[in-house]
Design brief:
With about 210 residues, the chain is α/β, with parallel strands linked by helices. Helix content is about 20%, strand content about 25%. It is globular and about 45 Å long.
Length: about 210
C-alpha cells in the first residue's frame, strides 16, 4: 500500500490519502499526531510532502509511520529548509529540517555515496530514536538566484554554510529498517529511483528549461 500523508486536495495518484480535514481526496480523516488508524506493517511507500513542519511532536509521528511501514519501505519527505528567513518567520512551522536531520532518525547512520553530505554532529550526543530510518537520497532545492546552473556545486556548498536564504526546500528518501541490513544493500538501494511529490514537477521543468536556454 502507498500512503499520502497530508494529501489535502491533491492526493498523489494511486495512494491512500490521509489528512486531518475531510475532502474528496481524503480516504482517512485523522490527526497523525494521535495515531494512524492502520495495522502494523501495512505501507510499502509513504509520502509526506510539506506536512511534517506543522506537527507538534515529530518523534511521535515518525514512530507511527515506522509502525505502519514494512521493513525496507520507502518514506519520502519534502520539507522547508530550516535556514531560510521565510520559513524561520512562519509561526505555523514547529519542526525544522536540514542536512543534519537524517542523523537524528537512526542509531546507525548510513551516508549515501552520492548527493549532499549529512555532516557529523559535534559536541552534543545524538539520542537513539525509537525508530530506524536510513537515508537513501537527499536533495536540496535552491532559491533564486542560487538555482541558476551557473553556480557550481562547490560554490553552493560554501554559500549555504555561510548564509541563509540559499536553499528553499529539502527532500529525503529514507528506508524503514526493522531487521538487520548491510551497508552493501543500503548502497544498492540508494542507487534506485523512487517516487517523489508531484509538486516538484513544475520546479524540475522550470530548471530544465533554464538550462536549455543557457
Amino acid at each position: 500500500m502507498r500512503i499520502d500523508i497530508g494529501c489535502g486536495s491533491s492526493k498523489e495518484a494511486g495512494y491512500l490519502g490521509i489528512d486531518r480535514i475531510a475532502g474528496p481526496d481524503v480516504d482517512i480523516v485523522c490527526d497523525i499526531s494521535q495515531g494512524i488508524p492502520l495495522p502494523d506493517n501495512t505501507a510499502e511507500f509513504v509520502m509526506a510532502s510539506r506536512v511534517l513542519p506543522y506537527i507538534d511532536d515529530l518523534s511521535v509521528v515518525m514512530s507511527e509511520i515506522h509502525r505502519i511501514s514494512i521493513h525496507k519501505a520507502i518514506v519520502c519527505i519534502l520539507a522547508p529548509y530550516a535556514h531560510s528567513f521565510v520559513h524561520i518567520s512562519n509561526p505555523s512551522f514547529k519542526q525544522k529540517f536540514d542536512e543534519y536531520t537524517p542523523r537524528y532518525f537512526t542509531g546507525s547512520f548510513f551516508q549515501p555515496p552520492s548527493g549532499p553530505v549529512c555532516p557529523p554532529i559535534p559536541d552534543y550526543p545524538i539520542p537513539v530514536p525509537p525508530f530506524d530510518y536510513r537515508l537513501l537520497r537527499m536533495e536540496l532545492f535552491y532559491q533564486y538566484p542560487y538555482e541558476d546552473p551557473l553556480y557550481e556545486t562547490e560554490e553552493l556548498e560554501i554559500l549555504k554554510m555561510l548564509q541563509a536564504n540559499v536553499v528553499h526546500e529539502i527532500m529525503y528518501h529514507f528506508t524503514v529498517i526493522k531487521e538487520d541490513i548491510s551497508n552493501h544493500e543500503l548502497d544498492l538501494m540508494s542507487r534506485g529511483h523512487y517516487a517523489e511529490p508531484r509538486v516538484l514537477m513544475k520546479r524540475r521543468l522550470k530548471s530544465h528549461d533554464r538550462q536549455n536556454f543557457l
